[in-house]
Amino acid sequence: MTSSEEYKRQIMNDLAHGSTEQLDDNSSLENYQSFDDFAQRSSKDERRHLFGRSFHPERIPSAQMEPELQQAIAQIKPNERDDVAREFFKHFKERGLSDRDLERQLSLSTHHPSRMNADDVTKLASFAYHNHPDLFRDVLAEQPGIVKFFSNPMVGAAFGLVAARWLSNRNK
What we know:
By secondary structure, the protein is an all-alpha fold. The protein contains 10 helices and no strands. It has helices at residues 3-16, 35-41, 44-54, 62-75, 78-94, 99-105, 118-131, 133-142, 153-156, 160-170.
């Protein structure tokens, strides 16, 4: 069994037994009713903290994250996809990577976010995840809607503690 399979099995086992780790002493996740509520009312810093600990190539290999990104990006609304692309380009530009250079380097169909298809945005997200995990985390913190479409248990386990709290609060 590979280490990622063992890790996934351990996370699922921990979640099944109600074992969750604390984000920090000031965590207020129990105040959110659902992921949508969390995405709308939480601060960027809260989301950045949660995503920063959860989404990193050392925790979730790129080979597992890339299909999730492709599926999730294909499911978000076109205007949300545009917003995600704009955020990636904004952050890449701050690092000296121009949209035109990224268009060539990643073989994108365009460098205009409003004209990008799901595959283009997936390429941007995958590139960020693999090469700039902190940038990836920042974009997710600013555009968290994409996260709710992740389905892989390994990726979903990143939100296991949030889901466990929501479920336990509903059962009270």
